[in-house]
UniProtKB/TrEMBL annotation, chain A:
UniProt family annotation: Belongs to the SecD/SecF family. SecF subfamily.
A Pfam family of this chain: SecD_SecF_C
Main location: membrane
Annotated region (Disordered), positions in chain: 321-367
Gene behind this protein: secF
Name of the molecule in the record: Protein-export membrane protein SecF
Species whose genome carries this gene: Streptomyces graminofaciens
From TrEMBL, chain B:
Ranges for domain SSD: 422-553
Name under which the protein is recorded: Protein translocase subunit SecD
Quaternary structure and interacting proteins, as annotated: Forms a complex with SecF. Part of the essential Sec protein translocation apparatus which comprises SecA, SecYEG and auxiliary proteins SecDF. Other proteins may also be involved.
One Pfam assignment: SecD_SecF_C
Locations listed in the record: Cell membrane
Keyword terms of this UniProt record: Cell membrane, Membrane, Protein transport, Translocation, Transmembrane, Transmembrane helix, Transport
Chain positions covered by the region annotation Disordered: 125-225, 571-595
InterPro entries, sorted: SecD, SecD/SecF_arch_bac, SecD/SecF_CS, SecD_1st, SecD_SecF_C, SecD_SecF_C_bact, SecDF_P1_head, SSD
PANTHER family the UniProt entry points to: PROTEIN TRANSLOCASE SUBUNIT SECD, PROTEIN-EXPORT MEMBRANE PROTEIN SEC
TM stretches of this protein: 397-417, 424-448, 454-475, 503-522, 528-546
Function summary: Part of the Sec protein translocase complex. Interacts with the SecYEG preprotein conducting channel. SecDF uses the proton motive force (PMF) to complete protein translocation after the ATP-dependent function of SecA.
UniProt source species: Streptomyces graminofaciens
Family classification: Belongs to the SecD/SecF family. SecD subfamily.
Its membrane topology: Multi-pass membrane protein
Length: 367, 595
């Protein structure tokens, strides 16, 4: 961990600086590949929809030693439909979750009576849950509605709080996260339940939360960017990613830990259906969100920004200056900014690599 | 988000102790309030406490019929039904725009409840044959009725005026002429003399409240009661509407039968003998509560009938108008309960009618809702019936809590390892956050019926991450400042404005998503969204009023202030720049230029 602390220090000093923005083509490529895979997976394999989307009944038994296979047999016999049986909890004594697709209310009562009889339980102990086929659809429809409304609002908000380019980049990153999450669900074949949908919706807020933190730093560091000629927008964008990298890592770890707890301990060991569904999609989505805010959102902002005439001009000036410096010092300044470059260009307008834009931001605030 | 206010940060800076004391007092007060309220655990949702949850989906021939007004009306009716069953604490609410969720706690006959809520409400107009409702007794009202102007003394009674004290007029009758009729709630035809608005107030006579007046009224009804209804009359006399069991037995009659029904008015129960159905509720095209500004008669309900319904209504009112009180009334019967029984003095033609009679806005709207429901082009289909046993819910809650505890422990370990001494502040903040979340959730139970369901538990667990993030943002900023060579005290203050902005901006996004989820989504998602929103708000509160002042205070201690090795703020470990850097800075030309 202290290594991470050192990493923080080195990042802070600009000793470590992975060129996220410079290598953006690679990451765009990776993301496009992932997206295509996700779409293909969705098209070919499709999503495994839970019983909430198909309609049917779910019965939960008390703890029993009846095996899954045995219960499956009973359930299929009792209902005449395919049944999915899951064990909730571990060990010999675990309760069973029996899903039977395609049965309606009167049938469900008969099935639960039959099941209870077969398994030698009281019918009142077998909790039955009847699910209409529209229930899940409605949740999903609401989810899409919520998604659209949220996106519109958040794009407006980001456009006001930051600027439209950042809003667009955040929007794309968010779509990207959702695509990845859905794609993984399709490829792995996890069951999609309303719990999944809840998890997916939460990613919306969380993915953006992460992106916003990086953007906030970017906005601050690029405040007076046109007043100097040392760094291009991409350089500064890259630096702001690097400077928030430790925070991003920490945040993601801290967010993932409780979710992992829910997923592996709550869901996996103790066997809690909905907990599992929510935490799985959260887990995937959080990881995707952290990735996208670093590798996709910020480079996209840099791309969009550098279409602006004044930033285009800045880039030209900076590159010209660097070429000049190269000739003078035979120093390769290909967009990297290490401490040496300060000595290389003593006349430069603008402070040192790390402290520079930041101290400017502060002085600006004090005004 | 909002630009940092200088004044505020200066305040927090100078009086961290006071801020801390304030929030601690607030927490103690909240906790004390929780114990005082007698509820020390959050109300558990149906999934954790057990019970039945029924989801009904609205169906309609025309999509536009599924709208908020119609759904709200349906909820109101269903509420009457489930709670009319004697089911206490049943919740009926709309979820989204086409679902109604009925949550019935464990211990209720869910089968019966399912039937009750699943069927469409039946609204009928039946002629009234006999009642013990005092308001209808003519003898109680004549003195007031004839008065053309409202007497001030009545105004107080207006509010209590039962719907029984209504009168029906055709809508055209807005002219203020006093009615010739001897009763207060005269019904007039547009072509005839109209009732004065003031006269409508007269029905509010409190005589209506005493059921004893009934008996005096009943003789007048007897002449029209034929032999077959004599048996009914006996039942009627034996009936005690105040007894829910007796009420439950009623209302099994066919639409062509004469039936006995109960109706609630003025806080008590009245009983009625009602004739065969005259007009079906579905023949009401629309009903609306409107404020009659023209005649100052107050709130009234306007009904529009379909063509067939209008004809039937004309027919019914024509017959009724010829009768003597109390048989000149028709009863509006919803689910076999009389909700209103306006008087008619003349036939109402034209398919439109008004019911007026010193309604409050609420009463008028409630009546129009009920009338509308009869015409509601909605049917409800049971989308899901969920029986959740508390054992299962308890197990899931248990699993969730264990998972949450483990997750929290992992977060704590991570924070301790990474932030060392600083983690104490983070952990204390998380603790404060957790206490506040728990207390507020508990208090919200009785206050707004908030119930902690399983997704809400998940939301709370996920929120650990969001809450911890705020500290991380702030701590990283402080460490950045230290790396730049500052000592802790200035570092804590300089880092705050920027950390604050980041926290606010990102928490706003989080809160926005929670709010949208809460408003848009259905069912379980809402509990989740609510918790997420609540914890986001608490996060801001805790960071502003607890974490920041605490850090300011601790920065004054030797341990933190001098950057002890284990404080997490050791400049050396953080790789602070040598002080030489600072002397160099003023030389940088960029600074003065921008300052």
């Amino acid at each position: 961990m202290s290594k991470l602390g050192d990493l923080g220090a080195r990042l802070h000093r600009g000793e470590v600086g992975y060129d996220f923005v410079g290598n953006r083509k690679i990451w765009y490529g990776v993301s496009i590949l992932i997206t295509i895979t996700a779409i293909l997976g969705l098209a070919v394999r499709g999503l495994t929809m839970g019983i909430e989307f198909q309609g049917g009944a779910v019965f939960t038994t008390p703890k029993t030693s009846i095996s899954v296979a045995q219960a499956e047999e009973y359930a299929e016999e009792a209902s005449g439909h395919d049944a999915i049986v899951q064990k909730l909890g571990s060990g010999d004594e675990a309760s069973l979750r029996i899903q039977i697709a395609g049965i309606d209310t009167p049938a469900a009562d008969k099935v639960s009576a039959k099941l209870a009889e077969d398994m030698d339980m009281k019918q009142s102990d077998v909790a039955g849950e009847l699910v209409g086929p529209n229930w899940g659809d409605q949740v999903a429809n609401k989810a899409w509605q919520g998604l659209v409304i949220f996106l519109v609002l958040v794009v407006i908000y980001l456009a006001i709080a930051f600027e439209w380019r950042m809003a667009v980049a955040a929007f794309i990153a968010l779509i990207h996260d959702i695509t990845i999450t859905i794609g993984i669900y399709a490829l792995v074949g996890f069951e999609v339940t309303p719990g999944t949908v809840i998890g997916l919706l939460t990613i919306l807020g969380y993915s953006l939360y992460d992106t916003v933190v990086v953007f906030d730093s970017l906005k601050e560091q690029t405040k007076d960017i046109t007043k100097q000629t040392r760094w291009t927008y991409s350089d500064v964008a890259n630096r702001s990613i690097n400077s928030t990298l430790v925070r991003s890592i920490n945040t993601t770890v801290v967010a993932l830990l409780p979710v992992a707890g829910l997923l592996f301990i709550g869901g996996g060991v103790l066997g809690a259906g909905m907990l599992n569904d929510i935490s799985l999609s959260l887990f995937v989505g959080l990881a995707a969100g952290a990735y996208s805010s670093i590798f996709i959102a910020t480079p996209l902002v840099a791309d969009l920004k550098e279409r602006e005439p004044q930033l285009k001009a800045l880039k030209k000036r900076v590159l010209a200056k660097r070429a000049q410096a190269d000739q003078d010092q035979d120093h390769a300044a290909d967009g990297s900014y290490d401490d040496d470059s300060e000595e290389a260009t003593p006349a430069v307008v603008g402070p040192r690599a790390q402290a520079g834009p930041r101290s400017r931001g502060r002085s600006g605030r004090r005004r | 988000m909002a630009a940092p206010k200088k004044g505020r940060s200066a305040n927090a800076q100078s009086r961290p102790g006071r801020t801390l004391a304030l929030i601690l007092i607030a927490i103690v007060a909240l906790t004390g309030g929780m114990f005082a309220s007698g509820e020390t655990t959050p109300r558990l949702g149906i999934d954790l406490a057990g019970g039945t949850s029924i989801t009904l989906e609205a169906r309609s021939g025309q999509e536009s019929a599924i709208n908020k007004t119609n759904m709200d009306t349906a909820v109101e009716i269903m509420n009457r039904r489930v709670n009319g069953l004697g089911v206490s604490e049943a919740e009926v609410q709309t979820q989204g725009d086409r679902n109604i969720i009925v949550n019935i706690p464990k211990g209720t006959n869910s089968e019966e409840a399912r039937e009750q809520v699943g069927t469409t409400a039946k609204l009928y107009f039946r002629p009234l044959l006999q009642t013990d409702s005092g308001t209808t007794t003519p003898s109680t009202t004549p003195s007031e009725t004839s008065s053309g102007s409202a007497s001030p003394s009545k105004s107080s009674g207006d509010k209590d005026a039962d719907k029984g004290a209504d009168k029906v007029t055709s809508p055209e009758s807005s002219s203020p002429t006093a009615t010739a009729t001897s009763q207060g709630r005269a019904v007039t035809d547009a072509l005839k003399a109209d009732s004065t608005p003031s006269s409508s107030a007269s029905e509010s006579t409190k005589a209506s409240e005493s059921p004893k007046t009934t008996d005096s009224a009943s003789p007048s009804a007897t002449p029209t009661v034929d032999k077959e209804t004599q048996a009914l009359l006996d039942d009627y006399n034996a009936l005690n509407c105040a007894d829910p069991k007796q009420r439950a037995k009623l209302g099994k009659g066919k639409t062509t039968d004469t039936i006995i029904a109960c109706g609630q008015e003025n806080g008590g129960w009245s009983k009625f003998v009602l004739g065969p159905v005259g007009v079906d509720g579905t023949e009401v095209k629309k009903a609306q509560a409107i404020l009659d500004t023209q005649t100052a008669a107050g709130w009234k309900v306007v009904m529009d009938f379909t063509d067939a319904g209008g004809d039937k209504f004309t027919e019914v009112t024509k017959t009724l108008a010829a009768q003597t009180p109390p048989m000149n009334q028709f009863a509006i019967v919803l689910d076999d309960e009389v909700v209103s029984h306006p008087q008619v003095t003349s036939a109402i033609t034209g398919g439109k009618a008004e019911i007026s009679g010193s309604f409050t806005q609420e009463e008028a709207q409630s009546l129009s809702n009920m009338l509308s429901y009869g015409a509601l082009p909605l049917t409800f289909k049971t989308a899901s019936v969920t029986t959740v046993s508390p054992a299962l819910g308890g197990e899931q809650l248990h699993a969730g809590l264990i998972a949450g505890a483990i997750g929290l422990a992992l977060v704590v370990i991570y924070l301790v390892v990474y932030y060392r001494g600083l983690s104490l502040i983070a952990i204390a903040s998380l603790l404060v956050s957790a206490i506040m979340t728990y207390v507020i959730m508990t208090l919200l139970g009785p206050a707004i019926n908030f119930a902690l369901n399983l997704p809400a538990v998940c939301g709370a667990i996920v929120a650990i991450g969001i809450t911890a993030d705020s500290f991380i943002v702030y701590f990283e900023r402080v460490r950045d400042e230290i790396r730049e060579g500052r000592t802790l005290r200035p570092a804590v203050e300089r880092a705050w404005p920027r950390a604050r902005r980041t926290i606010l901006v990102s928490d706003f996004v989080s809160f926005l998503s929670a709010a949208v989820l809460f408003i848009v989504t259905v069912g379980k998602v809402q509990g989740f969204a609510f918790t997420l929103g609540l914890t986001t708000v608490l996060d801001v509160v805790v960071v502003f009023f607890f974490t920041k002042p605490l850090l300011t205070l601790l920065a004054r201690t030797k341990f933190f202030g001098n950057g002890h090795k284990w404080s997490g703020l050791d400049p050396k470990r953080l790789g602070a720049r040598p002080p030489l850097r600072r002397t160099r800075r003023p030389a940088v030309p960029a600074d003065p230029k921008e300052a």
